[in-house]
Amino acid sequence: MNPNYGAILSADQDSRVAAGTVHTFDALRSHDVNRKSKGQHLADKQSIGIRGYIADTLALLLFFTTTGIINERFIAGMSWDQVFQARLIGGALMVPVGRPYGVWRDWMMRHAKGTRLSRLFWDSVSLMSFQVPIYAGIIASSGASGMGLLRGVLGAAVMMCVLGRPYGAFLNWVRGLFSLPPGGEKPMPVNS
Question: Which residues in 8-18 are b (16+ Cβ under 10 Å) and which e?
């Protein structure tokens, strides 16, 4: 057997090299690498989706459990038992609502210009338009009624206007802890 067998091309192989058919293996190997990178890209998107869900939900739970207690007890005048019940219901509702709100906010924030006033406005509008109706249902189902319910909803609307930008900044900070982009700049996938 010739030790240089691999280096010697027959006339037939030489013509195939010229025609480009010998490079088929390289093309298949390149396709396999591309498929792996696409598969990795899909895994990255899923990872971002899961991290986005966790980050958005955690931020909502931490921020609005604290502010909800303040509003319910000291503005709406609810008893501590009613506050506790509202926070239990609120916590249970925040888990499925955290990520959809994050996506809603990202969409709303795309309207914001680069100015502080514009970010303040769009953060407040997105928070109030999404959360106030949910909050009204929470405190109503927890026992608030009549003027207490009205004061609670109005208090929440004012709080959402005031807290829109601080919550937006807090949400972006929590997203940063999860290595995610801030909202309104790059859309994060919704899938989890």
Answer: eeeeeeeeeee
- CA distances (Å), origin 90, targets 37, 48, 126, 147: 41, 25, 19, 21
In three-state form (DSSP H/G/I as H, E/B as E, the rest C), the secondary structure along 21-82 is CCCHHHHHHHHHHHHHHHHHHHHHHHHHHHHHHHHHHHHHHHHHHHHHHHHHHHHCCCCHHH
How many of the other CB atoms lie within 10 Å of CB of 3?
A: 6
pLDDT tens-digit series, residues 17-65:
445 544 444 444 444 444 445 555 455 666 778 999 999 999 999 998 9
pTM of the entire structure? 0.65
> What does the alpha-carbon distance between residue 142 and residue 140 come to, in Å, rounded to a whole number?
5
- 74's tokens: 């000291």
How many Å apart are CA 157 and CA 144, to the nearest integer? Answer: 16
Q: Taking Cα atoms as reference points, which of 1, 11, 187 lies closest to residue 102?
A: 187
Instruction: Please determine, for residue 180, whether its predicted confidence score (pLDDT) is greater than 60.
Output: yes
